[in-house]
Amino acid sequence: MDVLAALRDSDEAQLRLEDRHIDLVAKPVAAETQTSLLVAEAPRAMIDLNRSVKDIDWGMVRGAGMRPVRHSIANRRSRNGLGLVPRRIPGMGEIWRRPLEKAQLEAWIAGIYTPYHAALGRELERLRDRWGVALLVDLHSMPPLRKSHPQDRPAEFVIGDRFGASCDPGLVDLAIRYLANHGRRVAHNRPYSGGYVLDRYGQTTRGIHALQIEVCRGTYLDARLDQPSARAGAIVKL
Question: Would the pTM count as exceeding 0.85?
Fold first, then answer.
């Protein structure tokens, strides 16, 4: 399947859904600190690795047949158009030209989703077994947050820990204070508390902690939020 041809506006859909160039921040940080790095290469418009494999809007899948409706968080996300395979984007509406074939969905899950999560799970277990504890930093980018009033200065970073469920609070507090002490505006869990990755891998009682960091694209991209700017180096050095 030609994914780009199947999208109504491939450029806009990818731009709205992707973590624009955040890997260019993550890679030098991982190299400098000698930490493990797993980069999601598949576009989120195609398959969202931060969703449960059950989080599927079967109404957009041809050949799926009747599926039982389960009123869960995952089901609610897919009904809102942002499930495992995104269907709608606010302001854009439907992003696909035609229904997705069931065989194509199964191929994406088997070839992209399952190997990604298997690799992530193995690495976290390996690190925990070696060091006694493992920390997953799920790095994302976010559009500039809107001001609530003219004098408001919205956060540049949002630390998410599923409201205390996925990470030791001491680690979260350390991350927040570190960013604040370096002159950065930081928020905790609002508007982003984390998603499926934190739910699945944040197992603090087993020594595996997970937090999500949303980085404002305006801190490392140009004015069009398109290409890395000279400020990207400062974000890497943090």
Answer: yes
